[in-house]
Design a protein that fits this description.
The protein is α+β, with helices and mostly antiparallel strands. Helices cover about 45% and strands about 15% of the residues. The protein contains 17 helices and 15 strands. A hairpin with a 5-residue loop joins strand 2 (about 80-85) and strand 3.
Length: about 475
């Protein structure tokens, strides 16, 4: 068995490592071995610190996935295509590998996108920035159990990472290179639409739906504004569902938790600037905000001190450097129209509106509690008043039960149905026994008197009369 397994996977990789490669490449489309390892097995980042050079340390920690890639290449699931600007080999899936990745990710093949052939022809600077953005949002945590036998320094370094604020979702929460058609269909989009660099869905962690655009500081503010206009057209696009009812096209693929109905904002768009090109991201951001104000600006609610964003796009910006260092929980995200930095969760949401709603709900709950308390007090007063009216047995003083009380009030043609309405059950039984006894004694007395009367009134018989007749 062992020999056969070695023959099938000559590099000796494990099923787990090969599945890691398929999942990561199924999402990222093209990646280096280093990126695959950092996402799939982040605990390896803390090992091999005794190696003399950084290159040797990287080779040691990526050895597991290097073997997996070699075996998957043997099975024609993965191929090598180009290299990064620093000389690292780029890996991507074949069509057969894309099908295998769809199975691992449990996604329809129609949602897997292309195989990214040719992406490494010019260094793949943009795909690499997209991958690093995914890693910055994901912030994979090391599995401390796998470091239980490592030196204390290794475990301490891993523990520090594990204790730091985490990221959002798992690798299965991300999609890359997702078309957003303003014409045509999902599978065959027409012209004029955008393509999202990253789509993130992690409702359980406070990010129901987030579109991410990564810019290496090569594009102008006008180009980015045009892309945001395409997003707006896509969000406005209506299609008919199976019941013939029109609904936004984006909701046919992604769902978001139902809101309160007070507003209906579009999904947020995050711009991540990677300082590779010559353009200043701060100037680009300021110009972009001015050009697209009609797409993101909300309406002020002066009574509650928050904004409504009905059919507006929450636009958020950050840099890849800040994202790498602080992650989504860091105060490094800037929402257009807001004065200061926020966490990603606050930036894509509406904290002031949420606080106002919570105050409203708290007041409503308080009113409901007050109403319940009034009802309870009124019920107690009614019960006390009724209890004060409850009759007691005229003989022993025992309070009547509800059933006894009801019986005493029941009437039969104007006459109380209860023969002793002022007595409890026990006293009634005693009274009835006494009545029966009295009736019995009276009956006996009457019979005795009647018998005495009969004896007194009946004439006496003459003795010897029978014999006199015989003699005659």
């Amino acid at each position: 068995m062992a020999a056969g397994k070695r023959k099938s996977n000559a590099a000796g990789s494990t099923n787990t490592a090969r599945a890691d490669v398929l999942r990561v490449l199924g999402v990222l489309k093209v990646a280096t071995t280093d990126q695959i390892q950092r996402i799939a097995m982040p605990h390896l980042n803390h090992r091999h610190s005794d190696k003399a050079t950084a290159a040797r340390r990287k080779a040691a920690r990526t050895a597991t996935h290097t073997a997996a890639l070699a075996d998957l290449r043997t099975h024609r699931l993965v191929t090598t295509g180009g290299s990064t600007s620093t000389g690292e080999a780029l890996r991507h899936l074949t069509l057969k590998g894309l099908e295998a990745a769809a199975t691992e990710l449990q996604r329809p093949l129609s949602e897997m996108g292309a195989t990214a052939r040719g992406a490494g022809a010019a260094g793949a600077s943009h795909p690499m920035a997209v991958n690093e953005t995914v890693i910055g949002l994901l912030r994979p945590k090391p599995d401390l159990a796998k470091l239980a036998t490592d030196p204390p320094a290794v475990r301490e370094a891993a523990q520090a990472v594990a204790d730091a604020p985490g990221g959002v979702g798992s690798i299965g929460s991300y999609w890359t290179e997702v078309p957003l058609p303003v014409a045509g269909s999902w599978s065959t989009p027409g012209r004029g639409g955008a393509q999202a660099d990253i789509v993130l869905t992690a409702s359980q962690e406070g990010v129901p739906l987030l579109f991410v655009e990564v810019d290496n500081c090569h594009e102008t503010a006008e180009e980015l504004a045009d892309k945001l206009e395409k997003y707006a057209r896509f969000f406005r696009r209506q299609v008919k569902d199976t019941a013939g009812k029109a609904r936004p096209m984006w909701r046919t693929r992604w769902t978001t938790p139902p809101g309160s109905g007070l507003e209906n904002p579009y999904p947020p768009v995050l711009f991540v600037f990677n300082q590779l090109g010559a353009r200043n991201p701060e100037r680009t951001t300021a110009r972009l905000a001015a050009l697209t104000r009609h797409l993101w600006a909300g309406t002020k609610d002066y009574d509650e001190d928050f904004h409504h964003y009905g059919k507006k796009i929450p636009v958020v910006t950050t840099t890849l450097a800040d994202l790498r260092e602080h992650g989504p929980h860091g105060q490094v995200f800037h929402r257009f129209g807001r004065p200061g930095p926020q966490t990603l969760f606050d930036a894509i949401g509406n904290p002031r509106r949420q606080a106002a709603l919570e105050r409203h709900w708290a007041q409503q709950r308080a009113r409901e509690r007050e109403a319940q308390e009034r009802e309870r007090q009124e019920a107690e007063q009614r019960a006390a008043k009724r209890e004060a009216q409850r009759p007691a047995c005229a003989r022993c003083g025992t309070k009547f039960t509800d059933e006894q009380w009801k019986t005493t009030q029941a009437t039969d043609w104007g006459t109380p149905a209860d023969t002793h309405p002022t007595l409890c059950d026990r006293c009634q039984r005693r009274a009835l026994v006494a009545i029966q006894l009295a009736q019995t004694l009276q009956h006996r007395s009457e019979r005795h008197d009647q018998e005495n009367h009969q004896e007194q009134t009946e004439p006496a018989r003459k003795p010897g009369r029978w014999f006199s007749r015989r003699r005659a």
